[in-house]
Write a structure and sequence with these properties.
With 308 residues, the chain is of the alpha/beta class. It has two domains: 74 residues, no CATH class; 207 residues. The chain is 20% helix and 48% strand. Helix 3 packs antiparallel against helix 4. The longest helix has 24 residues. The radius of gyration is 24 Å and the shape is flat.
Length: 308
Amino acid sequence: MEGNGEGRAPWRRRRGLVGPVILIAIGVVFLLNNVGLLEWDVWWTLFTIWPVLLIAAGIDLIIGYRSPAGAIVSLVLIVTVFAAALWAASTGAGDRPGAQGVPISYALDGATEADVRLSPSVARISLSALEDSALLADGRISVGNREALEREYEVEDGVAKLTLESAQVGSVNLGGFPGLFLWDLQINAETALDLDVDMGVGQSSIDLSGMIVTDVTIDVGVGQTTITLPEEASLDVRVSKGVGVIVIIIPNGVEARVRFDTGVVVRSVPSDFDRSGDSYYSSGYDDAEYRVDLDIDLGVGVVSVTQR
């Protein structure tokens, strides 16, 4: 019978290519970050070209579903669009934002406690102890021409409160990105510190050795974070990150509990830690004079907890 469709190959909708290509691209970038061949600031560049995803999806919908040849053409076009957008974002012409150094110096003014909040959008943070000083904080922060450093500082009832935050000024530059701005800071080692870091993209090296620390909260979108904990302290440490690498260094003699709330993550903890569900405990945690409670929340990446 005519028109019954016999002998005709059944029509099947082809799967799109945008999703797999994006996953492969993210995996490649993350691998290059881990092996040190690509700086973490590339994620900021990717964030600035997110409309490319809409272009790629449109190309795939128009061409990719029609035939194998169309799928190949779609793949080539998607890769070309991604490559062109990355090149434009990283090498764009003219009016590139430069870095300006802002000196940071705040007197202790009799404070014995300090609440310090750092909130850069894109940065490389280096934080360490400031020994034998009448200052609470000392250092230098680099900002771009389209960026302003907002500062608040007060001392009240023996508590110093310092907030350093970067803010966008004017339009966002889509023609290029110069890299991670350096936040190089030292905090008074003899002041009880409550530290809060809220960063979009970047790297941070937070060395708390020799310091008096009561609480640490780190919240980062994408990047690498290394935290060296103090030798004599009992404190809570919370690290939350979307994508990246987290390295925690616990000094010998400090007991710890590490609780994980993670997605696609590779974990590494000391082999002598006992496990209970998503938590790991050092052997002397219950009776320790100095102990740390670590809460780690990571979507995708690597977590390394070492003791030395």
